Amino acid sequence: MNDEVIRIEGLSKKYKDSDYYSVKNLNLSVFEGEIFGLLGPNGAGKTTLISMLCGLIKPSSGGFTIRGKNYAQQGMAIRQLIGVVPQEYALYPSLTATENLMYFGAMYGLKGKQLERLVQQYLDKMGLLKFAHKRVGNFSGGMKRRVNLLAGILHGPKVLFLDEPTVGVDVQSKNAILSFLKEQNAAGTSIVYTSHHLIEAQELCDRIAILESGQVIAHGTPQELIDKTLEARNLEDVFITLTGRGLRDVV
Q1: Is there a contact between 183 and 214 (Cβ–Cβ < 8 Å)?
Q2: DSSP 18-79
């Protein structure tokens, strides 16, 4: 078994004035070099969990380590190891694609010719080089998603957190994003990924955890989960069996 890249122990989060825990006494391990999927219905705690692991919000109790570093004592060191691609666009619409990426690269300590070369290289890889000097605000959803992804990986993170990286994109952009993620993973980046696209997760992820009410209710490889679930043909069948068919609208 590979080394643990993330170790989560008893992690909980209860927001102020909330009557329930968004994440409750959660224990989980993610291993070096894998693509790990966090799945669950709306309100299951996926985004809250990723937000804690990225240092964006503080846990109510419990803790975690990333590559052996404890978030409570070594938060700055952890932030240098990770990349974050949020579901909402983390881009400045009035800036060009190049200007956005130069800005985010500089935030991670990249500079000069190295940064310029990386920006050009990645824009080219994502089919965006001819739009490098166009304002991001005029981009399609798929183009914005691709720039959003690049902003999170320019610095070469060891662990990459992705929250719904292909939501609302065209088929071509989705394929480009997934191919790029597989390349990054093959080059040594461990990936933690959330999605509502279950067939996509089934094809992409080495292992999966399904969350419900802030707790892990099932985990394993996609095939293990399918094999353990009566009459399941795919991950979508597993998901419906475990979490039900009821609507999960959240405000």
Answers
A1: no
A2: -SS-SEEEEEEEEETT-EEEEE-STTSSHHHHHHHHTTSS--SEEEEEETTEETTT-HHHHH
What's the pLDDT score for residue 196? 87
Asked if residue 191 lies in contact with residue 162, where contact means CB atoms within 8 angstroms, the answer is: yes
Cα 132 from Cα 97, distance rounded (Å): 5
Nearest CA-CA partner of 107 in 141, 59, 151: 151
Instruction: Please say whether the dihedral angle defined by the alpha carbons of residues 140, 135, 122 and 39, taken in this order, is positive or negative.
Output: negative
The pTM of the full predicted model, rounded to 2 decimals, is 0.91
pLDDT bin (cut points 50, 70, 90) of residue 245 is low
What's the fold here for domain 4-243?
Rossmann fold (3.40.50)
Instruction: Check pLDDT > 90 for residue 100.
Output: yes
Distance of CA 18 to CAs 10, 60, 224, Å? 19, 12, 35
Please report, for residues 20, 79, 158, the alpha-carbon distance to residue 68 in angstroms, rounded to integers and kept in the order given.
Answer: 30, 13, 13
Domain residues of the chain, as ranges?
4-243
* Residue ranges of E strands in 128-250: 159-163, 190-194, 207-212, 215-220
